[in-house]
Amino acid sequence: MLPSSDRPLATAIVVNYDAWTETVELAGRLADSTAARAGRLDVLVVDNASPAPPPPVTQTWRRLPLSGEALGWGELASATSRNNEPPRSLIWWLPRPINDGFAAGINAGRRYARSPWLWVFNPDVELDSSTIEATLDWLERLDHNRHDHARLGIVGLRLTNPDGSTQPSVGPFPTLARVFRELWLPRNQRKYHPPERVDRGRVDWVTGACVLIRTDLLDDLGGMDQDFFLYHEEVALCRSATDRGWIVWFEPDLRATHLHPLQNRPVSTWLRVILRHSKLLYFRKHRPSWELGVLARLIEWEARLRPWTAPARDRRAWRSILRLALRMRRAEVRFPLGVRVRHLADEAVGRPIPPAERVDCRIDSVHPRPRGPFLGRPGSWSQPTSPPTSTTCHPASTPPPESPRFSR
Questions:
Q1: Residue 289: Cβ within 10 Å count
Q2: Cα–Cα distance between 289 and 295 in angstroms, integer?
Q3: Fewer CB within a 10 Å sphere, N or C end of the chain?
Q4: Measured distance CA(309)–CA(20) in Å, rounded
Q5: What kind and span of H or E run contains 295?
């Protein structure tokens, strides 16, 4: 094992939004592990402006400044009596002023990571100590053979349901042909390969509920794409990584339990707006324009027909989806991105947006973002030579009244 003063192998990042019970349990289990106490694993909770107050246990966590000006990890690296500290004190906490999505939370956490790998979690993931140790051992072996695996950038774990059955977690890249095929499949089989057909090896994409990401990969891509508020951001990450020559890998010997996957839950009206937006945005960024046009037309027809049978409370949301499809099909420049997507979904179901939470967003285009590496210190993000082709927001500090918990 590495001594506590050495750089850890991985930084566990748990992105939380109003799921404090699950977040505290997962972060505590990670911090209690032998790997964390030996300095092989750092634990960081990123809270995206949860409306509920944090529980008392967070008072023992080490709070990081949002700006990243203070190098909090320096304290962690220089701690020589780490094994004698209370387990909860090994948890770092980054409270953020706005809920602008899962990808934004990961990017914020990455600024503080001093490890070659990020281990990204949804709060509703359970894993035992043996899985933590096995994963760190696997990364250590990989690190020792770095020259043979230098381009291995994303690793997906095998996910299981609470009953022990294997959960779908690996899928093919979306195409228009697959969209039509998925129309005839049950919802829990649409995005993913059947688990029994997935073996160890190279894959298109893995779910972001529990995934290992090399920090060099994020630096190469300029971070995860924050234009996606929720869902499809991990697919877009894997697509961009593959295009840049990185390898996405599935490792079935590493396992975790995912309690509430999207495919096992009913889709709310609010979430339907988010999902349609994410799919349209993925096709605009990563598929040919003619495929985007057909998909937008398909969603447009759906949004015109579904209100005839939908409850009255859902019709406003379908009108919002219709406007999204029309804007995308007509290639309009102004298109909601990032936090504006959440605002759109809130308005679609009649949730007011507090005045203090209304942000000044300038939307230029939705082409892939310019790539720019992270710099070597927390909080520093190198600016590309041209302006980012994405949403530029100036957030306020008031959190929204409601938003879903982050769960794949």
A1: 10
A2: 10
A3: N
A4: 37
A5: helix 289-305
Give the count of alpha carbons within 13 A of 307, CB side only: 16
Q: What domains, with CATH codes, occur in the chain? A: 10-264 (3.90.550.10), 269-357 (no CATH)
DSSP sequence for 370-392: PP--B-SSTT-BPPPSS--SS-B
CB 342 within 8 A of CB 403: yes
Tokens 């490792």 correspond to what residue? 251
- How many whole angstroms from its chain centre is CA 12? 13
What is the spatial distance between Cα 235 and Cα 208, in angstroms, rounded to a whole number? 8
Give yes or no for residue 278 having a pLDDT over 90.
yes
Q: CB count, 10 Å around CB of 326?
A: 15
Distance CA 214, CA 212 (A): 7
Dihedral sign from CA coordinates of 369, 64, 154, 190: negative
State the burial class of residue 73 (Cβ atoms within 10 Å of its Cβ: 0-12, 13-18, 19+): buried
Q: What is the DSSP letter of 266?
A: P
**What gap in Å lies between CA 266 and CA 283, rounded to an integer?**
24
Lowest pLDDT segment from 58-62, 64-68, 337-341, 396-400: 396-400
Residue 231 — left, alpha, or beta (φ > 0 → left; ψ -120 to 50 → alpha)? left
Q: Give the type of residue at 279.
A: K
Predicted confidence at residue 80, as pLDDT, reads 33
pLDDT digits (tens, 9 = 90+) for 187-208: 777 788 877 777 899 999 999 9
* 346 confidence band (pLDDT: 50, 70, 90): confident
82-135, pLDDT tens digit by residue?
445 554 468 999 999 889 899 999 999 999 999 999 999 999 999 999 999 999
Please name which of 95, 97, 90, 112 lies closest in space to residue 16, comparing C-alpha atoms: 95
Give the integer Cα–Cα distance in Å for 391 and 342: 13
- The four Cα atoms 392, 394, 396, 401 give a dihedral, to 10 degrees, of -10
Of 247 and 84, more confident: 247
Give pTM, 2 decimals.
0.83
- CA–CA dist 70, 44 (Å, integer): 16
Q: At what angle do helices 315-329 and 339-348 cross, to 10 degrees?
A: 140
